Amino acid sequence: MNEDRRVQRTRELLQNALMELLETRDYDALTIQDVAERANVGRTTVYLHFESKEDLYRQAHRAEIARIAGAPLTRVELFADDPPDRMVAVYAYHWATRDVLRMVYFGKDAEVIHRQMRDQHSVQIATYLAATFAGVRFILPVDVLANCLAVSEMGLMMWWIEKHPPYTPEQMATHFHRLRRGSLREGLALTDVSPSS
Q1: Domains of the chain
Q2: What is the pTM of this model?
Q3: Are 72 and 90 in contact (CB under 8 A)?
Q4: Rounded distance, CA 111 to CA 105, Å?
Q5: Quick check: 106 and 162 in contact, CB under 8 A?
Q6: Among residues 15, 113, 141, 147, which one has the fewest Cβ atoms lying within 10 Å of its Cβ?
Q7: Concatenated DSSP letters for 155-197?
């Protein structure tokens, strides 16, 4: 096994250990030592791969979302009438894990985690938009559009998890899909935004 695969395997082991612990333990009470013991590694091993518990959680959450969502959405999916099934699956995952998300999103480390997740999500969206719409003129600066989408999706998700409004994952995915579609139509100089484009 080469070094890169060994590193990736260790990172996955630590991420899985944290997520397993969160099924029965409170996030604020968990320590890096708890994660290390669950993964059967030394505490220093955790810090070789992650800066902090917040960094470990953020990357574990990101990895799970990437596993569910798969490849980035295509232009066709972005402008379709309905959200793609994999987007609905992401909302279903968030709803299924809402108890853990509430602990993390509204715990003592919430501000740090929100900022890190927002910044990371914004950069990912900006990179994705630049690649997906290469050759298209941006009416809004790409970083402004990316931050708008990142903040609105995170805020909507947090509101849904905290307040428990009577919306299913399918409905929430549809709501955000329409909001994002409108933002893209306003932010990009597209001549044809039909689903077949």
Answers
A1: 3-50 (1.10.10.60), 54-187 (1.10.357)
A2: 0.88
A3: no
A4: 8
A5: yes
A6: 141
A7: HHHHHHHHH--S--HHHHHHHHHHHHHHHHHHHB--S--STT-
Tokens of 1: 């096994």
Amino acid at 172: M
* Alpha-carbon distances of 165 from 149, 154, 159, 175, 192, rounded to whole Å: 21, 16, 8, 13, 35
Amino acid in the structure at residue 50: F
Encode pLDDT of 98-132 as tens digits: 999 999 999 998 998 889 999 999 999 999 999 99
Q: Which two tokens stand for residue 172?
A: 């929430």
In this structure, are residues 143 and 122 in contact, taking their beta carbons and an 8 Å threshold?
A: yes
The CB-based long-range contact list for 22-26 (8 Å cut-off, 24+ gap) reads 22/100, 22/103, 22/104, 23/100, 26/103, 26/107
3-class DSSP state for residue 109?
A: coil
- H helices of 22-168, in order, are 32-39, 43-49, 53-69, 75-79, 85-96, 98-105, 110-132, 142-163
